[in-house]
Write a structure and sequence with these properties.
With 218 residues, this protein is an alpha/beta fold. It has one domain: Arginase, Chain A (3-Layer(aba) Sandwich). The chain has 8 helices and 5 strands; from the N terminus they run H-E-H-H-E-H-E-H-H-E-H-E-H. A 5-stranded parallel sheet has the order 3-2-1-4-5. It starts with a helix and ends in a 6-residue tail after the last helix. The structure holds manganese (II) ion. The site of manganese (II) ion has 7 residues, from loops. Manganese (II) ion binds next to loops.
Length: 218
């Protein structure tokens, strides 16, 4: 779904310089050619970049899958592809990527901050560095996948991965990102109450939003 939301963002700003901050445990940069599971949840960034990564192909892909893949890259009335360039993306807290994904990141020179960097620098300093990186962008979109959080907070998500953000780190990041002058959009993804106890994840997210966003009343 995330690629669809960003497609709307691109549609709204067809000629602007758009940036994307991707806070996630995963790289989500698989294509149908490289994905072991074929699960589309692992593909939104590759869709936005129009990146097939054929050189890391691990299996044959059926013609109808290729047809759909080509179509989804062009989501939106204007059928713009790619919707972003590799330098328009910054990953935060990624830690669970397949080998081909790390290789794609390196090949495309995409900027990323693994958990070690966050711990060394601190969430605030990391966020300020990212703010500076996007200073000359017209509009910035922030995607916050809740599996970026540490599973000790909640397992209410499909693919929890150890070593994630604390609540305070998540708040600090979003505090900075949502106050950037060019900040335009925030999505929260992968909250799954069916995998949770007492709705802990949804409560954690509300807590994060309440304490980091500038909102008049709740
Ligand atoms: Mn994820």
């Amino acid at each position: 779904m995330q690629q669809v939301f960003f497609a709307g963002f691109r549609e709204a700003y067809p000629d602007k310089k758009l940036g994307l901050i991707w806070i996630d445990a995963h790289g989500d940069i698989h294509s149908p050619y490289t994905s072991p599971s074929g699960n589309m949840h692992g593909m939104p960034i590759a869709i936005l970049l129009g990146e097939d990564n054929r050189e890391n192909q691990i299996k044959p892909v059926k013609p109808e899958v290729i047809k759909n893949w080509e179509r989804i890259k062009r989501t939106g009335k204007r059928k713009i592809t790619p919707k972003l360039l590799p330098q328009d993306i910054v990953y935060v807290d990624i830690r669970s990527l397949e080998k081909q994904e790390w290789e794609t990141l390196k090949k495309l020179k995409i900027k990323y901050y693994p958990p070690e960097d966050l711990q060394k620098k601190g969430a605030h300093k990391t966020a300020k560095e990212i703010e500076k990186y996007f200073e000359h962008y017209d509009a910035v979109y922030v995607s916050f996948d809740v599996d970026s959080l540490d599973p000790s907070i909640s397992k209410g998500t499909g693919t929890p991965v150890p070593g994630g953000l604390s609540l305070d780190e998540a708040k600090e990041l979003l505090k900075v990102f949502t106050r950037m002058p060019n900040f335009k959009s925030l999505e929260i993804t992968e909250v799954n109450p069916l995998l949770d106890n007492e709705n802990k994840m949804a409560n954690a997210v509300v807590n994060i939003l309440r304490e980091s966003l500038v909102i008049e009343s709740w």
